[in-house]
Structures are given as C-alpha cells and as structure tokens.
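Following up on my earlier thread - several people asked me to post the actual chain instead of describing it. Fair enough. Here it is, all 166 residues.
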Amino acid sequence: MKAILHADIEWGIGSKNGLMFSIPADMKFFRETTTGNIVVMGSNTLKSFPGGKPLKNRTNIVLYPDGEKREDCIVVNSLDELFAELKKYDTEKIYVIGGAMMYKTLLPYCSEVLVTKVNAVGGADAYFENLDENTSFELVYESETVETNGYEIKFTTYKNNKVKSY
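Reply from S.P.:
Thanks for posting it. Predicted structure:
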C-alpha cells in the first residue's frame, strides 16, 4: 500500500476539506498514478469530490463508520473491515488518498509515500507527518524542481523501512 498527496513546506495537506493548491502537473501525476488502481479514503475525502461521487476508473474504498452502503464505491465501517477488504487486492495497486486521519492511521502500513512538495505555505488546517523527521522513512527519490502554475514543486518518494502488515 502507498500514500499519495501534495504538501506545502509545513507539511500542510488541506484546508477546509479541500486541496490548498490547484496544480495541473500534480493533478496529472495523481490521475496517472491512481487510474486503474484502488484508492482508499475517509468519508470526508469522498464528500469533498464534485457531487460527492467517487473517482472514475478506480476502485474506491471508503472508511465510513455508520455510512450508508452505495453502489458506486465500497463502504467499510471499521478498520478491521478495511483491512479485510484490502487483502483482496494487490498491495502495490492500493493508494491512500486522504484525509489527514486516514493518512495518520494507515501510514505505518504504507511501503511508500509519494509526496508532491509545493514550495509555498498553503494555509492548511490539516497536516501530514513530516517524513524528513520520521526515522522509519527514507527519501529515495526527488525530482528536479519544476515551476508550474506559479508554484515550484518537486515529486518525491519516501520508502518506509518498517512497514507493518495488516
């Protein structure tokens, strides 16, 4: 399982249940990486999508305690149910996509974290753990800085050297 996100220089990841930045290169990377795969999210992330509809061309799994079952995505009510569902899929095709609580809960189980680092402060009210200070994680890839849509960004990959199994 992997996590994918963008973060500002303070490791902020969101504001008011939405993205802080609209960066086409980041959106393209997210879309190309997750299309055809499994995305895992909390209920607030699902609600933040246009019309509260799941992402197209992906298997959407939503941890939604007491949430209603839906035809357009897989709703699980507990972490145990989530882990049972995830065991049905190739772990390399599973991406945690938010929100902050899902990232915090599932980070120890992620083998990699793909972070688009945005060289700006986004006014976040939701944060991701600073992986540069987490001894379990190692920066294994960092792209050149790219300027796009008025922002400087870098695509990075962190490897978890102490992955927990579920």
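The chain has one domain: 2-14+21-131+140-155. That should answer part of your original question.
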